[in-house]
Design a protein that fits this description.
This protein has 4 helices and 27 strands. It is mainly β and 421 residues long. It folds into 2 domains: 20-113 and 396-421, Golgi alpha-mannosidase II (Immunoglobulin-like, Sandwich), CATH 2.60.40; 126-390, Distorted Sandwich (Beta-galactosidase, Chain A, domain 5), CATH 2.70.98. The strands form 5 sheets. It has a 9-stranded antiparallel beta sheet with strand order 9-16-17-18-19-26-23-22-21, covered by helices on one side. A 5-stranded antiparallel beta sheet has the order 4-3-7-1-27. Strands 8-10-11-12-13 form a 5-stranded antiparallel beta sheet, with no helix packed on it. The longest helix has 20 residues, at 2-21. It is globular.
């Protein structure tokens, strides 16, 4: 029996060694007559294993384009040790295809890449520890939230733009305009309320212009940059303004990061709701993605999002593909008095109604809103874009920004294809 076990161990070692030495090629093709620069291709693990063969958690594939190793991210949604999706950043010329070498290497030898997405969430009493889970603070006062949390709540960024959430009963969304492609939010707002500690150097307020950028949006009582509400019983309610709310980091990587806000037992219009809000940011886009899920089987409930209109007088709607519309504002509405385009992209058949909230009052104000067709257990998806003139002078022309969105939607509807060579 001992000899049989030894032979089996040797056999498995040989098989593992063969896998590590194994190489193959995948053909990536661009179906569009436009260049795809730094395009992110998402491949389910099952698809990849069919193309190159299976690999276990001790082995990982690297993707090599000529002499360049392509930035790659592996996502384990269930956190069970199994890879679910692979993200690969690739360049393809218009209507072209490219052969990419795939080589299996030990997981502990996998190369590091430059991060292009980031989730930052920390408490003021421990800036060195990231929060993976937290419960929403029961206040509406900035002066209170600011003393407890860095940046008043979770913030997320990519190489183009950043955002943050007021992690209290306001549940607002704000924008960080960026002047760098590097991840900058680790040190933004650090030590603002602990300047008496001589061991921690003070930092400037993120409302003031800095080398990395600044907070560029005044939110007030609006929905800011894509915050969420619910329309029920002929009234509009801000989601998160009562009851328990939670944050949970789902995954974080060089090319994409995602977290979830949950609102169990939230009350509005005499009813109780259970709501999840997924927030995802992907590299190389001036946007983040929201996915809303109504987990309660209730009638007369529609999700609503919106754009602050404190400093904008016009709300534009434009169809940018057969399936998608863009809803946007463009005005001198950034804190540093420059042009800013704010836009929401959603599927045409998902939007039920648009309009404007009151200028004053106790509820949600100064907002251009979008009301969605909403069904229990079904995701409501939209993307929020922010184009800040200070980060690129071409953003002063709204046509450039809508063209950029149109191109991005075109790529989303015509993804890069892949087959084995």
């Amino acid at each position: 029996m001992e000899n049989i076990n030894l032979l089996l161990a040797l056999f498995l070692l040989v098989i593992s060694s063969c896998n590590l030495n194994k190489t193959s090629n995948i053909i990536f093709s661009n179906p569009l007559a436009i260049d795809r620069e730094d395009e992110i291709v998402q491949i389910p693990y099952n698809d990849l294993s069919e193309l190159i063969g299976e690999f276990d958690e001790t082995q990982l594939p690297v993707f090599i384009d000529g002499g360049d190793t392509l930035t790659t991210q592996f996502i384990d949604y269930e956190k069970d040790g199994s890879i679910d999706d692979i993200l690969i950043e690739i360049n393809l010329l218009a209507s072209s295809q490219k052969s990419i070498l795939v080589q299996i290497i030990p997981a502990d030898e996998y190369p590091d890449f430059i991060a292009k997405t980031n989730i930052r969430f920390a408490a003021h009493d421990d800036f060195d520890t990231e929060l993976d889970y937290a419960e929403r603070i029961q206040t509406v006062e900035t002066k209170e939230t600011s003393k407890i949390l860095q940046m008043e709540g979770p913030a997320w960024e990519n190489d183009k733009v950043g955002f943050r959430n007021y992690f209290d009963l306001r549940n607002g969304m704000d924008i960080f305009g960026k002047l760098t492609s590097e991840m900058a939010l680790e040190n933004v707002g650090v030590n603002k309320y602990t300047k008496s500690n001589s061991e921690l150097p003070p930092v400037e307020s993120y409302h003031e212009f800095a080398d990395w950028g600044m907070d560029i949006l005044k939110v007030g009582n609006s929905l800011g940059s894509g915050a969420i509400a619910l329309f029920t019983q002929d009234s509009l309610y801000r989601i998160g303004d009562n009851g328990k709310g939670t944050f949970q980091r789902l995954y974080e990587g060089d090319l994409q990061s995602e977290f979830r806000f949950s609102f169990p037992g939230w009350k509005a219009g005499g009813k109780e709701f259970d709501i999840d809000h997924y927030v995802k940011i992907t590299a190389n886009s001036y946007s983040y993605n929201s996915s809303l899920v109504l987990n309660s089987n209730v009638d007369d409930a529609e999700f609503v999002t919106g754009i602050v209109n404190l400093d904008s007088e016009d709300f534009y709607i434009e169809q940018i593909s057969d399936k998608y519309n863009v809803y946007y504002t463009h005005d001198v509405q950034a804190y540093n008095h420059v042009d800013l385009t704010l836009a929401i992209v959603a599927k045409n058949n998902l939007v039920q109604e648009t309009g404007a909230c009151p200028e004053t009052g106790d509820g949600i104000t100064q907002t251009y809103f979008i009301k969605f067709n909403t069904e229990p257990q079904q995701k409501v998806d939209y993307w929020f874009y922010a184009f800040w003139e200070t980060s690129d002078s071409k953003f002063s022309n709204p046509e450039n920004n809508i063209d950029a969105i149109r191109t991005e939607i075109n790529k989303r509807e015509n993804p890069i294809r892949y087959i084995s060579e």
